[in-house]
Protein 1
Amino acid sequence: MKDDCLRFELTLEEILLDYQKVFSKDAAVAVKLQKKADFLYVQITLEGEEYDPLQETASLVLIKTVHKWDSAPSYEYQNAKKEIGRNVLTYKFKVRGSLRENLIFTWKYTRQSKGYLALAVALQLISVVFMIIAPILSAKIIVQLTDIAVYQMLWTALSLFAVNIASAAIMAGCNWAYNVVYNKTLTLLEAEISENVLQIENKAVEENGTGLFIQRLTVDTSNLATAFNTLADNISQICQYVGILAAMFIVSPLVFIAVAILLSAQIFMELRRQKVSRDNGRIYRNYAEKYTGIVGEMVRGGKDIKLVNAQQQFENDLKERITNANDSRMKWDADNRKYRLVIASVRESGALIFVALLGGLLFNGRLNVATALILFNYYTSLGMPAITLLGTILDFVTQFNLSSERLRDIMDDRFFPKESFGEVHKENLNGEIEFKNVWFSYNVGKLKTSTRWVLSDLSFKISPGETVALVGRSGSGKTTIMNLISRLYDPFSGTITIDGIDTKDLDRDSLRGSMSVVTQSPYIFQMSIRENLRIVKPDMTEEEMKKAATLACIDEEIEAKPEGYDTVVGEGGISLSGGQRQRLAIARALLRDARILLLDEATSALDNVTQDRIRESLDRIKGQCTVIIIAHRLSTIVNADRILYLQDGRIIAEGKHSELIAGCAEYRELYEKEEKQS
Ligand code: ADP
């Protein structure tokens, strides 16, 4: 949406400037907004001779073609028999999330428990009948009490007791059925949203931050899971109130009319409160999402925040976000309180008028005591609940629409693009990797930023079983190459192939299943070491697990722990040292037996001795798989079959270590500096 707004602003600005140039500076432009069905039309009209700004303005054409903007404006010249025609430009925006669409979306997840939903509604409707009978019985008791008809009164009291107990039992059953619906819906919905979140392109996750996803996965899914329950519950309650009103009408049409007027006044006030509350709620939720985002970072990055002494900065930022969230919630609450106070005054005045009316009718003999009591009971059970019900329904619709929009966005490729894979399935790839004229930038296609190429026309080929090292200064594009091979990102142009097949054509298992990637700070999950390893190979044997740990030089340390491989590591592997995390990740990678091994500074946290031991392990598997290594210390890659030296996203030299020392001044310089330091 942010991009849409920006595009709208930019294009409108250009159109207006263009019109100014062609017509006069003071030419009047009319803007008209119109909502039809699920679309919002924005019409820009200027009277005068025919002039199509879309043909002249290059960037508008660009937005239409390159950015494939669905809402790009269309041009039309209207001069239906008039002397002066009208230049009309129309933007057409799809309005998202109508209630109907959102309900259809949610029904997909509730449908499987529709039997329970039907049971809940049926039980609730039965209890509604009881609720209409109960006031009649209690009125009867009072009349019988005043008449001192003790025997009849006892019978009525017993009937009332039976009605109330039955009603409570039925409601318990009804709540149970609603609960089943809620749980089943939530399970399905959470599973699907989680699946979608995991498929979202890396880029989109980075841009949005984790808070947004956590908020949507927890709060919004829950709002949706209650949707049909709330709806059914509300409809049943409406039936109850309609039943009470009908009963009132039968007893006294005059009282019915008075009640209808009194209720309407309160309902009108409640509607006003709702409108204000809806707007306030939207503002609050936006701030809350930002707040959750930073809290997540604070907890995950707590250690680093302390170490870089950024508490103050973080606290300030946090305070600002908390203040924004709290202020907006306070305003929300304050507005609600104001309206509720007014509504309460209206309600109490209504009650007074109602009692006065009953008194008048009793006095005139147009009502007997029993009927007056029934009407009074009905009014008390109608008054506030009926009005709050309307509020609850509107609140629910607002929350429901917001939550649905947020969850549907997550599933929508336009807002959160998903990774897509090809159809080609290859069981045993050999591991030949080729880059052909690859161009890549992290910000290509973004509005308001000029493209900065990270890889420029890059071409190279790596043979199966070859060990290749990528060397170059920080920021030269080494990690980006790894990211492109594993398709965390796709190139802007050019192709990347594995065994001659474009990586875009390979299915996920063939591509990601054929490679193991170890990064500088690998993520270790909060589970046992064994489970952390099993995650990549569910059928691993004890022997395979130990062999991988031995190759990664971490076996002894794991076995020295009291619980050995069953030791549970903290979130993100926090209870392990940086070096242990890296070696566990290497073990995890080796366990997979993948044809391609990508090591991105995978041993940077290790001491020289351990690093040498790992290098020896890698030497042992040399030739069995293609290995690409990025290493901070050049001493770890001197034995590589080939070294590619990168500078600003281009290979400026390649060869064996000795060849580069002889022929590449930049490489020699890097190597000599390192030699001197050690
Ligand atoms: P290297 O691994 O050689 O240090 P990288 O491939 O990590 O270099 O980065 C190359 C360039 O791309 C750097 O200028 C870096 O700032 C930029 N870059 C890396 N990752 C991202 C990202 N996720 N978003 C935007 N820019 C990035």
Note: The chain has 22 helices and 14 strands.
Protein 2
Amino acid sequence: MPDRPALHSAPFSDDRYRAATAAAADPAAFWMSAARNTTWTDAPTVAWEENSSGLADWFPDGTLNTSFNALDRHVDAGLGDCRALVYVSPVTGIERVYSYRELLDEVRRAAGALADLGVERGDTVLLYLPMIPEAAITMLACARLGAIHAVVFGGFGSAELAARIDDAQPKVILTATGGLEPGHVVPYLPLLDAALEEAAATVEHIGVVERPAVPAPVGRRPMPNEHDWSTIVANAAPADCVTVHSADPLYILYTSGTTGPPKGIVRDNGGHAVALQWSMQSVYGIGPGDVVFAASDLGWVVGHSYIVYAPLLRGATTVLFEGKPVGTPDAGAFWDVIGRYGVNVLLTAPTAIRAIRREDPLAAQLARRDLRSLRGIFLAGERLDPDTQQWLSEVQPAPVINNWWQTETGWPTVSNFLGLSYLPPKPGSSTKPVPGFTVDVLDPDGTPVPPGHEGAICLRLPLPPGCLIGVWGDDQRARKSYLDFRAGYYASGDSGYLDADGYLYVLGRADDVMNVAGHRMSSGQIETALAEHPGVSECAVVGVHDDLKGQRPHAIVVPEIDHLDRVDELRSELQALVRQRVGPIASLGGVDVVETLPKTRSGKIVRRCLRQILDGESPDVPPTIENAVVIEDLVRTLSPVDRNLVRE
Ligand code: COA
Ligand code: AMP
């Protein structure tokens, strides 16, 4: 029987949470026991060992297939007719329910199609797709063959796509003619063509999903190695599962640091399967037959973990939603799906709830739906402001759970629990560490700070299963990015504090990474695009507070002399350049033109001060500043950004 959540109105007891935390203090025994939730070809006898990146390879002598665990074994157990995936697409008007048997059939044929294109165990396949079933099916098809998928979010532009193609070196790319956004179509093929022209990597085959609503651009000649995906799938023989080692990569998912190219976070097969199932049960309170609605995109970690893998590994039903919280058609879209499909948990980003509230402050749309199936709403990906948490708690009765995690960790690190004890929530806090994670807040020297003091949020090693096992193609980058801060710790890059009861409060990034509508973006990636413009001498991009999206990228630009008399044109050209190169999700909230940027003596731009000035705060000027007078000038000349006004 699945675990049922405690009602949030029931008296609080932390017994089950404390018992699980105590048991997880012996990680080897705890996770070897949890590993019984997975069907292994060779059951593991060793819990974990350190790998060449300094991270943990879990269950190193175990072998399995993730796709078998997500599909075949449920069909073998007689659940073939149960609902596996529900595709709800308000942008096309299509809804389709796939049973486990049907989804298995589709995945076997998609795996056969990939095999026909020469994909084998260990090859990489890049997916640049909208939220259509083919995306989830191909992810599982890669897993079936032991191939490694790298999904690239459809809102990224050509430069971002090219960087990922060059890093992942895919044998095959699967894309679609385009995506459907509220009120407009986003053609993918021109972006892919531009990315392939820019990338150095050679891609053997390109599969294209032809969407009836998005015809290929008129006159575009298909590449010589381009195939209609539905035709090759129709002609393919179903493929069987290939057994892989537990620590073999299942996927690469790119994420941003402050600067440098995106980091390809590598996830394994065995640890991932074990951890995600454990999380479904213990964090989310989800069992076989329950319904999970992760309203995110497959291009992000929430989509990988909680649209595709975790619900299917657990034998639950997952909703794949091709739409937005508002505008497809209105602010009732999420509530409508929950009511009609009996959703038990909703996962989304706080921005989505802020967007719904802005459009429907009295929650009239929600009141019209039957939400009795809903046991909890999990919000992650960015800071959950207490005001939004309170509003959502007032307009519906399910617990609203702020949970903190990252692409790197793959599943919640700090949360409240529907499958263990439901702990008394505190506004502004993500509650307590998930059993298996030990969270410490450290000062810049790596010493733990007392409760209530802000510092770097770090996780003690070894990380539990399901977390990153490395950075694609670069063992040293994982060490440098995450492990060098203090021996024995993973540094999350976030800043925050623990209170005296052990509750975590995440305050923001310790570096210059931005969070725009729950999407992590680096200053560096947008600055690289701006620097391509001949009119830009120097530039900095910072994330400025935005009431809806949390933050918005904002550019501060020093123009070349010959562009000084055309700064208005420069601003709009820079807007367009960022949209084309990085993608529309990185659209600049504003562009300020200045004479000089503030720098440290070693030449680093002091982005933090720029952000503070634009947020209307007094800048925290570092002692290493080269040109303090520039900051004083900027305080006079840069006006704080109107939180919702887009300045071009
Ligand atoms: N493919 C192509 N384009 C995309 C895209 C995709 N998958 N996703 C977004 N875009 C485009 C949008 O069409 C928009 O383009 P436009 O500027 O030409 O209109 C641009 O990128 C910005 O999109 P978005 O950030 O979604 O802003 P929005 O103003 O269109 O919508 C919200 C606002 C609040 C509805 C939207 O940000 C949202 O749904 N947020 C929830 C966040 C979320 O789920 N995050 C996942 C992490 S858990
Ligand atoms: P991503 O890797 O894109 O999922 O982004 C992870 C980042 O989002 C974290 O490092 C945090 O900065 C932020 N984040 C995620 N969840 C929360 C949360 N509950 N509260 C505050 N910030 C969060």
Note: The chain has two domains: 15-425+437-497, 509-645.
